[in-house]
Specification:
With 360 residues, the chain is α/β, with parallel strands linked by helices. The protein is 39% helix and 18% strand. The protein has twelve helices and twelve strands. The longest helix is centred in the first third of the chain and has 19 residues. The structure holds 1,4-dihydronicotinamide adenine dinucleotide and magnesium ion (MG). It catalyses: (R)-malate + NAD(+) = pyruvate + CO2 + NADH.
């Protein structure tokens, strides 16, 4: 059966990088004879234009329409001058994440050729790990409240929620990922020395899960020193798993340490495939450069690569990765986009990568 992908470019540079991402996916599909349907009927979904025209970011019935797809390939959303971000994001991307129970947020932290690493003395190969973030519960609950507002007795409370199912399922995903990698190493982010109920529970579930993965080596660090190790000794890591808050911090810090926050991808994953997963670049709609044709398409293309990898098309995913690396390393200044110091365009870099996918 064909892999069915709903293509949602969204706003700003999402619309510019998406065609490059699609061209690369099509090149990979053609070369490896993959049966992938890229459905482009959603061009005005999750756009601020649509919101201004109709009063909502998504049409009614969006959930039923998207539910049968295997994945959503998503560009970016947001036109902050026209529509407040909380409306555009909460009316689209956040709906997808919640309604489709995308309880894993997955980001690679990999030092790529051709990208200046902000850490000293690191070479390609030194930094190569994944951050796995719990994406549905934990610190980001809406349980709590404000008492005695406006008085000097004012109190605010927000509870952390950790369910056994919620904690176990993200740990299982992370352990499976670690087991699939050569190093087979997992690091758990904790803070059980300070947060005395939920974090010891996290540790306990992690130790329990580890019993089922004898071949995976496990360590844990408190989040404060863990952030320091990300910067000082990133080669320690292979798969790093964290709660919603800790994972949020680590999944920005990790790519930032490789200088690749502008080109990195992200997966919002429902591992069972009950609902579609969503693959997107980390960056937003970049209104400051939208319409100029100079957006770097690598984040979008890499997100497509992650999507193929997620669905088990390993050969195609490997070639896409190699094409991205080769283009960044030796594409040349006429091909590389201005954010990486070149004089190329979104199309020159995207087209170059698509060509490499055909012939590497
Ligand atoms: P942004 O990621 O859109 O831009 C930050 C800076 O990085 C800008 O200077 C931009 O030009 C540059 N940049 C980003 N992607 C680039 C690329 N592919 N090539 C070259 N340069 C690139 O973040 P910002 O400015 O905070 O947000 C702009 C809008 O995007 C807002 O409406 C925000 O809510 C939305 N946003 C959406 C996200 C999503 O759809 N997942 C994620 C982050 C922001
Ligand atoms: Mg974040």
């Amino acid at each position: 059966r064909a892999l069915r992908i709903a293509v949602i470019p969204g706003d700003g540079i999402g619309q510019e990088v998406m065609p490059e991402g699609l061209a690369c996916l099509r090149a990979a599909a053609a070369r490896f004879n993959l049966d992938i349907e890229l459905d482009e009927q959603f061009k005005d979904w999750a756009t601020c234009d649509r919101y201004l025209r109709t009063g909502s970011m998504l049409p009614e019935g969006w959930k039923e329409t998207l539910a049968p797809y295997d994945a959503i390939y998503f560009g970016a959303v947001g036109m902050p001058n026209l529509v407040p971000d909380h409306i555009s994001l909460w009316g689209s991307l956040i709906q997808f994440r919640r309604e489709f129970d995308q309880y894993i947020s997955l980001r690679p932290c990999r030092l790529m050729p051709g990208i200046a690493c902000p850490l000293a003395n690191k070479k390609v190969g030194d930094i190569d790990f994944w951050v796995v973030r719990e994406n549905t519960e934990g610190e980001y609950s809406s349980i709590g409240g404000k008492m005695f507002p406006g008085t000097d007795r004012e109190v605010v409370i927000q509870e952390t929620v950790m369910s056994r199912i919620g904690v176990d399922r993200v740990l299982k995903y992370a352990f499976d990922l670690a087991q699939s990698r050569p190093k087979k190493h997992l690091t758990s982010a904790t803070k059980s020395n300070g947060i005395s109920i939920t974090m010891p529970y996290w540790d306990e579930r992690c130790a329990e899960m580890a019993k089922g993965y004898q071949d995976v080596s496990v360590d844990k660090y408190h989040i404060d020193i863990l952030t320091a190790w990300f910067v000082l000794r990133p080669e320690l890591f292979d798969v790093v798993v964290g709660s919603n808050l800790f994972g949020d911090i680590l999944s920005d810090l990790g790519p930032a340490c490789t200088g690749s926050i502008g080109v990195a991808p992200s997966g919002n994953i429902n591992p069972e495939g009950t609902w579609p997963s969503l693959f997107e670049p980390v960056h937003g709609s970049a209104p400051d450069i939208a319409g100029k044709g100079i957006a770097n398409p690598v984040g979008m293309i890499w997100a497509g690569q992650m999507m193929l990898e997620h669905f088990g098309y390993k050969e195609a995913a490997d070639i896409m990765m190699k094409a991205i690396e080769t283009a960044l390393e030796s594409g040349g200044s006429q091909v590389i986009t201005p954010d990486l110091g070149g004089a190329g365009t979104c199309q020159s870099l995207g087209g170059h990568i698509a060509n490499l996918i055909n012939k590497l």
